[in-house]
Write a structure and sequence with these properties.
By secondary structure, this protein is of the alpha/beta class. The protein is about 65% helix and about 5% strand. Helix 5 runs antiparallel to helix 6, helix 9 packs across helix 14 and helix 11 packs parallel to helix 19.
Length: about 475
């Protein structure tokens, strides 16, 4: 197990700095420098999604170690902690050493290796925190007591739901099935369920008290413009259908002849269905939003296999399925052209800003070139959602006013970023949501004050979908 974790950490050194992590590390650096989330700095996800990386950034400043390397170490420690909680719960339940060892090896692989380039992202950290909760629920499904470890499992589940509320579906479905099976509400009031609920309620209260501007101003705009950005059901359903069907098929191949769907693997399969529901409700079809779906779908039959090994053809098929899922989770986002050397040639350690809805244009580029990010958000994502809604539907006058207000909000903060940050280089995208040609420069120039500020920038190069502007003064 230690070898699995060590190998995973070494493999992640050149891979871990993805766009989302790059932006969140930069955001935490700005917070440490005195900016306030929801006032000076904006992020579409709840505050915990940002502050969960604060310790890595703070320790980086004290030690001089790159924060992304500290993130790797912290995630590995979190995985080890989750494995320990699962093992202690299994020991309290009286499971044999062989079953506990297989469980530890399996989840070391699933939590450390399977995520690939999803490693260290919010969803990855949330799924790690949530896995002991599902394990405890699976023990209770078997009529076993997980002991005191259930309390820590509940804390992890509460934090996972704080990172993204959608994970309530992953934690909740196995409990609901226990309620249905037992015909009793008692599973809703286990120690881990009560602790998880208390953590969520406490976190919600803290957000209201400490981040009133996020709650009253930014969160409603996220709900209006960001959450409605989604793929159609036809493109969302195939992945959950294929993954869950494959999981059920492998469960059946590895089960005894009298196998019933009330067997021990069912809570894990229910958690996978919860992950599928989360994937569909979010509607973005980004691979990392499918991590819970895929990980628990693999766990369900894998925990069954040790009792009845698969025949060679089924085993080969199972390994191929796991490999394909791993490739899917690590499939790249729409790529921007190589910009690192071009930007560095224009300005050493530049002050950088982008006009785009895609986080990947400016991040982690700004960290790779040792530049300074002068934006108040990672991208103009809310503006993109508002523009898409305006173009794809006919909003009512009230809705139109809200969308116009969101677009004006984005323009106003872009103007402030340019005036305050004085970027040396501005990168301008030419696509909306990586799908439709769109003139972001014309969008900005529709505001007279922005047009006046941008007039001092000249275009020096057009690289693929990106236009590069530099300060001509």
């Amino acid at each position: 197990m230690a070898a699995i974790l060590l190998t995973a950490s070494l493999v992640q050194i050149p891979l871990v700095l993805n766009p989302d992590l790059g932006w969140l590390l930069t955001a935490n650096e700005k917070i440490l420098d005195g900016q306030k989330l929801g006032v000076d700095l904006f992020e579409s996800n709840p505050p915990l999604s940002v502050y969960m990386y604060m310790s890595a950034v703070a320790f980086s400043r004290l030690s001089g170690i790159a924060p992304q390397l500290i993130v790797i170490a912290m995630v590995i420690v979190e995985i080890a902690g989750a494995l320990l909680i699962i093992d202690r719960a299994a020991a309290s339940a009286g499971l044999e050493a062989k079953e506990r060892s297989i469980s530890a090896w399996l989840f070391a692989f699933l939590l450390a290796v399977l995520p690939g380039t999803v490693f260290g992202q919010r969803e990855h950290i949330a799924v790690i925190a949530l896995t002991p909760f599902v394990a405890v629920t699976a023990l209770r499904w078997r009529g076993l007591s997980p002991g005191p470890a259930a309390i820590l499992a509940g804390v992890g589940a509460g934090l996972a739901m704080g990172i993204k509320p959608f994970f309530a579906l992953v934690a909740g479905l196995p409990i609901i099935l226990c309620v249905v099976r037992q015909r009793s509400l008692r599973p809703l009031f286990t120690s881990e369920a009560c602790i998880a609920a208390a953590v969520v309620i406490g976190y919600g209260a803290l957000v209201f008290v400490l981040f009133p501007a996020y709650v009253s101003t930014y969160a409603p705009m996220v709900a209006e413009a960001y959450l409605p950005i989604r793929k159609d059901l036809g493109s969302l359903l195939p992945l959950p259908i294929v993954v869950i069907t494959a999981s059920i098929a492998l469960l059946r191949f590895s089960a005894p002849r009298d196998f019933k769907m009330s067997e021990n693997s069912f809570p894990w399969l229910a958690a996978s269905v919860g992950g599928a529901a989360s994937f569909i409700i979010q509607g973005k079809a980004w691979p990392y939003t499918a991590l819970a779906l895929c990980l628990f779908a693999i766990a369900a039959p894998s925990l069954q296999v040790w009792t009845r090994p698969l025949r060679a053809p089924a085993l080969i098929g199972a390994l191929a399925a796991v490999l394909l899922i791993g490739f899917y989770l690590s499939s790249p986002d729409p790529r921007f052209p190589p910009l690192q050397e071009r930007v560095q040639a224009l300005a050493k350690h530049p002050r950088l800003l982008t006009m785009t809805d895609h986080i990947g244009l400016g991040h982690p580029l700004v960290r790779q070139i040792h530049g300074t990010w002068v934006g108040s958000s990672c991208a103009q994502l809310l503006a993109a959602g508002a523009i898409l809604r305006q173009n794809s539907a006919q909003p009512s006058p009230a809705e139109q006013a809200k969308l116009d207000g969101i677009i004006q909000f984005e323009r106003r903060h872009l103007l402030a970023d340019i005036r305050t940050g004085r970027p040396n280089v501005i990168l301008v995208d030419t696509y909306l949501l990586s799908s439709f040609p769109f003139d972001w420069l014309a969008w900005a120039n529709a505001d007279p004050e922005l047009q006046a500020e941008l007039s001092r920038y000249r275009e020096v190069e057009d690289v693929g979908r990106v236009r590069i502007f530099v300060d001509s003064r």
